[in-house]
Amino acid sequence: MSLDLDSILDALAERVAAKLPRPAEPSMRLAFLTRTNFAKRVDLSPRTIDTLIGRGLPCIGKGRLLRVDVTAADAWLRAHLAEDPPADDDPVAALARRNATRGGR
């Protein structure tokens, strides 16, 4: 009885794969980004993200270890932007407009 190398390797790969832990569903994964990376993701400045964190944007940690919970922050932004359209005197909206006219600086 002769087995070729490919069939042996395939059988071994299947056994190894069966023992590896399955990755969580994409909807179940928690993703955390630094405030700078989250700012890039939503096209705002890091300072605006700091202001939003002060207003309740979901995050964990503090200082250099602060991370924004992407899933919760996306929901928070949708909820807050939907219920309160930016007023002319809204400092976050004014800051975002000012940053947009300066090319994101």
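(ticket continues) Second input and output from the same batch:
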Amino acid sequence: MTRFAITILLALPFFGGCGSLHGLQDWEIERKIADEKREQQIKIAKQEAKQKLAHFLDAAKQGDAEAQYQLGKGYLDRVSGEGFLNHTIDEKEGIKWLRKAAEQGHADAQFRFGWQYVNTSPPKDPVEGIKWIRKAAEQGHAGAQVELGNLYSYPRYEIFPADLAEGTRWYRKAAEQGDAGGQISLGVCYCYGRGVPEDKEEGVRWYRKAVEQGNSNAMALLGSCYYDGDGVPQDFAEAVKWYRQADEHGDPFARYELGKCYYNGEGVPQDTAEAIRLFHRDETQLSYWGPGRELMKWYINGDYFPDEEELERWFTQLRHLAEQDGKSEYIVKEAKEAADLLLALEAKGIRR
């Protein structure tokens, strides 16, 4: 028998005859079993969720603060920390139960209740919201302490003026109890001298504490410190290491910085194709540091060639950003860069 004939005989079960029929039937049976198992799991999960909802509702009506908090979160988020599911969001009902728990001194409820009043769009009642956030912060709630630090450091409402030292004080309270958000915010304060004397080495120390907790934002910031030589010796390879780790955790800023390193050949061999691949994962996020904006610069330089749909989207987004009207330094800078890019594109004869 020839080698060709032997090969055909061995392949028959995959290309035809009883072998392929039996394989198909086995696959269909396995899929049906898997579907039935999945449906049963969903049914059980719904039953358990219904039981939990009934339990929380009963306990909440009897004045149990934790049950009131979980019930309030469940109505606002669909899934509470305890895992019960509401099929519809009911903000009014959620706030009602959060208030009941907050009034009993439940710190998580106080923070979430205050957050709902401050961070909705438009905000319901910033004064009332901040009052409850402060109550939670004074109880040692780390998330509330970070939020209060934000409100002092980056005031959004004309309730009290910016007070960087007070903002830093609240960040420190959260950081010292191990909260990664507080550690990052305190690190930023030291790196940029916000509310404390500038001390980049101290800033890096706080970033590292958050990195040890697996925080991707801290990894990206640590990468930037190595890239710029802030608080540590400049080391592009070390910067790439931290950018890559943060990117693997889904951090978009790190992905952007990693893409730039590939484009410029800093810490890695120069690789424009890899830079473009990284940027294309987020090119629609056209923020000040956005990959899309960097791609436009490469397009102007002749290193990247978008299709017509992408080019049209860029122009639409650029016009929107250039027409922004705001007082903050960030918005002014973003609008100016967008306007400059539009001018550069038009100078190349590229108009839409």
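Agent notes: Confidence is low (pLDDT under 50) at residues 1-18. The two ends are 69 Å apart (CA to CA). Closing as not reproducible unless the customer responds.
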